[in-house]
Amino acid sequence: MKPLEIKHRVIGRGEPLICVPVVEQDAQSVIREITYLSQSTADMIEWRVDAFRDFTDYNSIRSVFEAVAPLLGEKLFLYTFRTAHQGGMAQVKAEQLDDLHDLAAESGCVDLVDLEFFEEDRPLHKIKRLREMGVSVIASHHDFEQTPSPEVMKMLLEKMCAGGADIVKLAVMPQNYKDVLNLLDVTAQFREENPDTPVITMSMGSLGGISRISGETFGSCVTFGAHEKPSAPGQFAMKELRQMLDTIHASSQIQ
């Protein structure tokens, strides 16, 4: 299979891409933040629509798309509605979530849509439909309470992979350093066994910080950094994250 390439960026090889979430509550602030990030060193911008207080106003969402579309250039644009059950800031019915995903797919400026795989009734159908509408899909699962056993984490990744997503993502909360090591080991195993499916993993909180900078070693292709407002515990500041990733990448090129 050909590697996943979006806007001339090959995802899943080399230095991990830096994604910076936008968690502002009003349209003007969302547009201002995306304007800033479009000129930054971020590789990907994530709009966390669950943080947007007008997410029930579809015209307001469309107006944001119209405003930011000319700004994005080569920046990848990820659209995410994180439900409360998965650690997000709002909850909606399944029908409304479908509408929100469709808005993204029809926008013409969204490159990737985050889909909470195990929250969907028919995830395989949903992934297929979104991909046919022209966007790539990140199938995701988040556990803010614990780190499941290695066997369960591997099962979660494999089920999402079998669902046809372009990228699979798993975020977990560690209770001790062994949880972090287990997550890194599962990531490396999955990447080795599924070389055609890019994977994103992270161990959240301060204990899991190493997982956010070691993707080039263990196989995670995207890491999330913060500009002013983090979207999850343990995110490094964007500029510091870039310095750390560049240093690790440079050292890996030394023969």
UniProtKB/TrEMBL annotation:
Q: Which InterPro entries match?
A: Aldolase_TIM, DHquinase_I, Type-I_3-dehydroquinase
Query: Does this UniProt record's set of keywords contain Signal?
Result: no
Reaction(s) this enzyme catalyzes, per UniProt: 3-dehydroquinate = 3-dehydroshikimate + H2O
Quick one: which residues bind 3-dehydroquinate?
A: E46, W47, R48, R82, R212, S231, Q235
User: Which of the seven top EC classes does this enzyme belong to?
Assistant: lyase
Active site residues according to the UniProt entry: H142, K169
Tell me one GO biological process term.
3,4-dihydroxybenzoate biosynthetic process
This protein's pathway reads:
Metabolic intermediate biosynthesis; chorismate biosynthesis; chorismate from D-erythrose 4-phosphate and phosphoenolpyruvate: step 3/7
Q: Which UniProt keywords apply?
A: Amino-acid biosynthesis, Aromatic amino acid biosynthesis, Lyase, Schiff base
What is this protein's function per UniProt?
A: Involved in the third step of the chorismate pathway, which leads to the biosynthesis of aromatic amino acids. Catalyzes the cis-dehydration of 3-dehydroquinate (DHQ) and introduces the first double bond of the aromatic ring to yield 3-dehydroshikimate.
| Family label | Belongs to the type-I 3-dehydroquinase family.
Its quaternary organisation is: Homodimer.
Write the protein's name.
Answer: 3-dehydroquinate dehydratase
Organism source for this protein?
A: Roseburia hominis (strain DSM 16839 / JCM 17582 / NCIMB 14029 / A2-183)
Lineage, uppermost ranks: Bacteria, Bacillati, Bacillota, Clostridia, Lachnospirales
